[in-house]
Amino acid sequence: MTTPPAVSVIIPTIGAGGDVFGARRVFVVEAVRSLLATAGVPVEVIAVTGPSMPEDVATTLGATTTEAGVPYRRVLIDGPFNFSASVNLGAANADGTHLLLLNDDVEALNEGWLAVMCEALEPGVGAVGAKLLFEDGTLQHAGHTYRTALDHIAFGQPGDTTGRTGILARRRDVAGVTAACMLTPADVFEAVGGMCTHLPGNYNDVDYCLKLRFAGWSVVYEPGAVLYHFESRSRAEGGGVGTDEVEFIRGRWATRLAGDEFTPLVP
Question: Whose CA is closest to 11, among 101, 135, 115?
């Protein structure tokens, strides 16, 4: 029997491309190359794709992981894009001790970032999130805040911002973390029922983190894991969020959202 990988990396993707730093790229290909070059722990890669995924992208992913000696599988999913359903399907096909939920439009900035996230996944911790930067180097994510709105702490501030008393530079408990880069134990993921498919595009990570904390696990932000996330500012600020998604998350967790005790009054 072979030893299971430490981490199963689940990447929902349609193989889209875009311009980053003045050059064209296929996001998922560059995300996987970056992962394999910097993770610091054994991984397997699971790409959950719809039928619109270009075959040349799928072939390139297979070749890239084979060259690195890393297990890879492509899992097909039908229907309109649903991030939660894609992650759940990827988890059902995973062999790793831990699951890394990863957007396809990321690029790692430091060696061993995933190993650091694994270190932060101490007993009692249900999820660990990373420090994410926009293409221009400003902060996209340093943990979630639910105190007055569903938002990212220190959003848009300079990437080297440490906050009052250096709070943003420390590993710490937070209300939640984004599923653009979230590490969670596979058995914990199963215990809380995975991601909520009623939230196909937004707030599924909010819901997951609240489920974890309700069940007694903590959620941790790890600033020692730094990645670019090439999501547009407009989307990160709420573009594309459906009214039904807002109503669902507030209806399910209203009192817990209002009771966010982790967010500093002034970051």
Answer: 101
Express each pLDDT in 130-168 by its tens digit: 999 999 999 999 999 887 778 888 889 999 999 888 989
Average pLDDT over the chain reads 91
- Is residue 57 left, alpha or beta, with left meaning phi > 0 and alpha meaning psi from -120 to 50? alpha
Asked whether the beta carbons of 33 and 123 are under 8 A apart, the reply is no
Class of residue 263 by CB neighbours under 10 A (exposed 0-12, middle 13-18, buried 19+)? middle
Cβ contacts of residue 91 below 8 Å, gap of 6+?
Answer: 8, 10, 99, 186, 189, 190, 194
Instruction: In whole angstroms, give the CA distance from residue 124 to residue 155.
Output: 28
Residue type, 80: P
Least Cα distance to 222 among 182, 194, 264 occurs for 182
pTM over 0.85, yes/no:
yes
